[in-house]
Amino acid sequence: MKNIIKKIYSKTGIKSNRTKNITKHVVISFFYKGGSIISSLMIVPLTIKFLDTENYGIWLTLNSFIAWFSFFDIGLGNGLRNKFAEAKAKGDLTLAKAYVSSAYFTIGCACLLLMIVFLGLNFFIDWTKIFNTSPQLQKELALLMPIVFIFFCLQLLLKLITTIYTADQHHSMQGKINFYTSIGSLMVVYILINIAQSSLLLFGIIFSAIPVIILIWLNLFAFSGIYKPYKPSLILWKKKYLKDIFGLGMSFFIIQIAGIVLFSTDNIIITQIFGPEKVVPFNIAFKYLSISNMVISIILTPYWSSITEAYVNNDYDWIKKSMQNLSKISLAAIFIIAVMVVFSPLVYKLWIGTSVNIPFSLTFYMGVFFALTIFYAPYTYFINGTGKVKLQMYSILITAFINIPLSVFFAKNLGMGVKGVIIATIICLIPHVILCPLQYMKIINKNAHGIWNK
């Protein structure tokens, strides 16, 4: 692996230490992400075989529902990412540890409160109505939901360690965690098919536990090794440190909520209008074309914290050159999406056979969605890295409010079906496609004022 990375440095003429570090972690991430993508694709037909189409649709919708609660990190994860990187760039290690401590203990308390409230409400919720499924599943869902939710809360807290790795420009760590999770999940499904009867409860418990077990190990490994100087300490939890993280984190918090509404409600909308079985073709098309987004995210992720460090040190030349390269990569990725859409019928047939029918029109609009997302993604990472996120916050908040009623209107009232949901989301992306590049140009040319510079 080291020899491959050295050859890339030599052939591409990379000299900047910052860019060398990014390239190293991108190459490593491609290896792990490639394994994750292959595993996630292989797991779909196996899961359908184990659960059947309806229960798989319930599981997908359940995950979308649980994802709504990820905003209970109150944006502290992204706030910690920027503030930890800034503190390290300035050489203030005590401040960096204080930020880590404040984030861990605050999110820990929020998760504990969240679990208590959820366990209390669970007795009064009819999950079969929420997931639009058979009343006979209520007992199983009433038992599964709190278990999955508890594991989710633990994951919300424990995944802060990957934020620290990323902020410290060890960008490939998240890819490694996803890889081990995907491989573990694939192995578990294969074993379940051979030794167990179909059970949504068993499936949900095991799949929820796997990432938590891996993250527990990573936290113990990191805070007893490389990040021992930053091990969370209750003594360092102070309001002023929390305020520093939360000041920036609040904007990220609102963006997270709006992002969840904009990008994670589609499965729930489809379930309520058409039933959980219709979530499956939508999700398969999404999973197939999301490969392009996964690849581009491998490249973009390291730039967030690197841009933070470069922006603090006024290294605008490096930022400009990096953004030019990222824009070219995005255009190449959009071309690949077009090719993926053209060959999608063949891919679906080889991948899942004839068990699920995915209309070509659904794949086409899903391709448009990912093409737009990838086009403005580099500018979003730049904006997040600089912390100038107020404009992004307002724009995504407005479009999030529009998305759900627009999705219902297109899918149900206009009779567009499932594809109407993704068309509505595409329309909601248009303001971001325009505003993000425009804000980047203003900031990088040092003529951003007012909302453009907040």
UniProtKB/TrEMBL annotation:
Membrane topology: Multi-pass membrane protein
Pfam family, one: Polysacc_synt
Major location (coarse): membrane
Domain of life: Bacteria
InterPro entries (UniProt xref): Poly_Biosynth_Transport, Polysacc_synth
Regions that span the bilayer: 21-44, 56-77, 98-121, 141-165, 177-196, 202-224, 245-265, 285-305, 326-348, 360-379, 391-411, 417-438
Keywords, alphabetical: Cell membrane, Membrane, Transmembrane, Transmembrane helix
Subcellular localization, as worded in the UniProt entry: Cell membrane
Protein name per UniProt: MATE family efflux transporter
Lineage of source species: Bacteria, Pseudomonadati, Bacteroidota, Flavobacteriia, Flavobacteriales
